[in-house]
Amino acid sequence: MTHRIRALPLFAVLLAATSFATTAADESPLDADAVARAEALRDRALAGSGAYAIVEDLTTRVGPRLAGTEADARGVEWAIAKFKELGYDKVWTEPVSFPVWERGFEAARVIRPVPQSFAIAALGGSVGTPEEGLRGEVVKFADYAALLEGTREQVEGKIVYIGNRMQRARDGSGYGTAVRARSAGASRAAALGAQAILIRSIGTAANSRTPHTGMLSYDIAFRKIPGAALSNPDADLLENMLARGEPVEIELRMGSGIRDEYTSRNVIAEVTGRDDSGKVVLIGGHLDSWDLGTGALDDGAGVAITMAAGKLIADLPRAQRPRHTVRVVAWANEEQGVYGGKAYADAHKDAVADHLLGFESDFGAGRVWRFDTRVAEAALPMMDAIGAVLAPLGIERGGNEAYGGADVGPMRALGMPVASLVQDGTTYFDYHHTANDTLDKVDAKDLDQNVAAYVTLTYLIAEHGLPPAPQ
Ligand SMILES: [Zn+2]
Known about the structure:
- A hairpin with a 3-residue loop joins β2 (106-112) and β3 (116-118).
- The chain is built from 16 helices and 16 strands.
- It is α/β, with parallel strands linked by helices.
- α2 (9-21) packs antiparallel against α13 (380-390) and α4 crosses α11 (296-314).
């Protein structure tokens, strides 16, 4: 893959020139030796980062990692052992507690007009139905906004169905609007007297009979009703039945529910900087996954990308290590409410100033195409200069309103600067939270490009700090 870099010298030079033009021509915010070392790390990652082997191992030996299950505990042990095997200097864990949700059995069938079975997945956090199931007529709403206009006369005693279809986009922007049906629909339907809610899967797999799970969240003001997602083809079928104008009656049986409290662990590992300054660059991915697939894309890939990036820095001779420390976190239970990110912020809230920059990989295994930041004005020239080192990877410089990732969100809220190495998510939501989230969707070379981006940004910030750096 190195030849690709060499094939683009003019492009890189032009970008670098543009970037440096905004600062003093001979005063790059980056040290020339450090840039050379970052480029060498970047090219080493492209030549084979080892990230694919990590996600292959995780999905094969641990499998799906639903928070609070026995596989959650095995995942923690796996991450501890893997960090050690990769040569990290320090590995430890910190507790993360949360209620345990179990899926149990799930089935939906049409009683009338004609018997049919639907492929469904209970939504995370959902209560179950009575053991014998529940039956009701379906009332359709086009989207969450339409449900907000719904009346008790329309809904009382029925099963609400929300039909909005998620739009495909490289940046995944269709998710935010569509997902309200999943997250907030149940309580809205309950407020109008519904027995249960079914939604069209929040995903772009139009032709796959794999429903997409994901969290719903109940408003405590209302009764908790069961919620499940239909696969896209089953949602089409239901809509075709409803279009006939005859009542459609469904039987729903779900054994899901909250069972217990559980304490999992954030697994944290460090590559100590040569100054051992106590300052860290914080990267990572979340170790938990949903239970339907093997969590290869969400978020085995992110765990693998960041573990492999840290390993490349760990492999450097001590004298060539960056000044500051690289900290990699395999976050616990992101899926059910960012429990790992919240626990970390709680434990480290007095050390926010020691966190130079935080960013998480949690958008599958597609290539990085944009570099966003959320840093102080004074740090922008440095970030633009780093953008020029990322440019040969096909990464454009984005804006300064980066999201950073769910698990760094609580630290961002406390003032930690963040970045986003934004991945191509064109196909991500075909597989997201489904049984199709498996290793075959991961391309080793694409992962290497991600690791190249992560190691470049991580190394350069760990070496230079971030202006205005607290001294
Ligand atoms: Zn995720």
